Amino acid sequence: MGFSHASILLFDGFESLDAFGPYEVLAVGAAQGPDYEVSLTTAAPAETVRSAHGATVVPDGTVAEADPDLLVVPGGGWNDRAEASAWAEAQRGTIPDLLAERAAETTIAGVCTGGMLVARAGLLDGRPAVTHHGALADLRETDAEVVDARVVDAGAVVTAGGITAGIDLGLYLLEREFGPDLAGSVADHLEYERRGPVYVAEE
């Protein structure tokens, strides 16, 4: 178990906490012992990426350069159909194509409406999943099995509900991959009370 490189996939219009909630959890986890890297990446080369609320971020490089074995996909702007958003990225197709290409070798984790990008890649077909409550109707129109949970573990694909659920997703992944002691220690460090439920699909 475990992973060697966790990366957050950024795009213009991403929801800040969708990305930095898991990033903080995973980075604090790495600082407490496990030997893995954490990075911020993009699908295509970009000097900067602008979040939905205007923060400008300098990514570490592309997904291809980082070659992570855990890739976290935030949402943002889906329900507003914003010009720069997860919705726009779904229409563009670059990120869904990238996720589909990497799925065989990478654990894919969708936060909030990042789950809709995972769905657009076809990775939720026949699998249990969740997304932001405002996009559940859209998720039901896919071939995913919509589950009422905060985090849904479908093995190689994990999804989480809206925005702050990304923190719970990060902590759950630490627990799943490295054990409950690390997840508990990171939650204590963040002074965060974990929320559930977590749904784990039967293998």
Task: Please provide a written account of the structure.
By secondary structure, the chain is α/β, with parallel strands linked by helices. The chain has a single domain, classed as Rossmann fold (3-Layer(aba) Sandwich), CATH 3.40.50. Helix content is 36%, strand content 20%. It is built from eight helices and twelve strands. The chain has helices at 16-31, 63-66, 86-92, 94-102, 114-120, 136-140, 165-178, 180-190, and strands spanning 5-10, 37-42, 49-50, 56-57, 61-62, 70-73, 107-111, 128-129, 145-146, 151-153, 157-160, 198-200. The strands form three sheets. The protein has an eight-stranded mixed β-sheet with strand order 5-2-1-6-7-11-10-12, sandwiched between helices. A two-stranded antiparallel ribbon has the order 3-4. It has a two-stranded parallel sheet with strand order 8-9. Helix 3 runs parallel beside helix 5 (114-120), helix 4 packs across helix 5 (114-120) and helix 7 (165-178) packs antiparallel against helix 8. The radius of gyration is 15 Å and the shape is globular. The relative contact order is 0.17. The mean pLDDT is 97.
